[in-house]
């Protein structure tokens, strides 16, 4: 499986890079999680920067099997706690979203 992880800032990315053992690889951080390939892209803050980063990522990792967007934005919503997983059920693949729903 090929996965792409997006995060806006270095501060948000730091823990993921460490936990997954990713290494700097040109424009991204990359590595393997078991047999799965992972690439982390720092997008910068804002919609236009995130869009540009997503385009760049798809050029480097075409047709990823899994895309994760992660960050601290949920901290601004009082009913979301640290470690909560937020899934956009309306825009996610129903097969994968259904698996998350059963956690």
General description of the model:
It is built from 3 helices and 5 strands, in the order E-H-E-E-E-H-E-H. The model has no long low-confidence stretch (mean pLDDT 80). The chain is of the alpha/beta class and 103 residues long. 15% of the residues are buried. The two termini are 21 Å apart. The radius of gyration is 14 Å and the shape is globular. Strands 2-3-4-1-5 form a 5-stranded mixed beta sheet. A hairpin with a 2-residue loop joins strand 2 (23-25) and strand 3 (28-33).
List descriptors.
about 100 residues, alpha/beta, five-stranded mixed β-sheet, 5 strands
Helix content: 25-40%
Percentage of residues in strands:
25-35%
Low-confidence stretches: none
Spatial arrangement of strands, main beta sheet: 2-3-4-1-5
Order of helices and strands: EHEEEHEH
Radius of gyration: 14 Å
The main pleated sheet reads as: 5 strands, mixed
Secondary-structure content class: alpha/beta
The count of DSSP E runs of length 2 or more, i.e. the number of strands, is 5
């Amino acid at each position: 499986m090929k996965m792409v992880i997006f995060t806006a800032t270095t501060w948000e990315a730091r823990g993921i890079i460490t936990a997954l053992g990713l290494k700097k690889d040109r424009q991204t951080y990359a590595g393997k999680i078991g047999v799965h390939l992972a690439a982390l892209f720092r997008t910068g803050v804002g919609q236009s920067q995130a869009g540009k980063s997503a385009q760049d990522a798809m050029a480097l990792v075409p047709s990823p099997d899994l895309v994760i967007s992660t960050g601290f934005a949920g901290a601004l919503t009082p009913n979301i706690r640290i470690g909560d997983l937020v899934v956009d059920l309306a825009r996610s693949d129903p097969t994968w979203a259904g698996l998350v729903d059963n956690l």
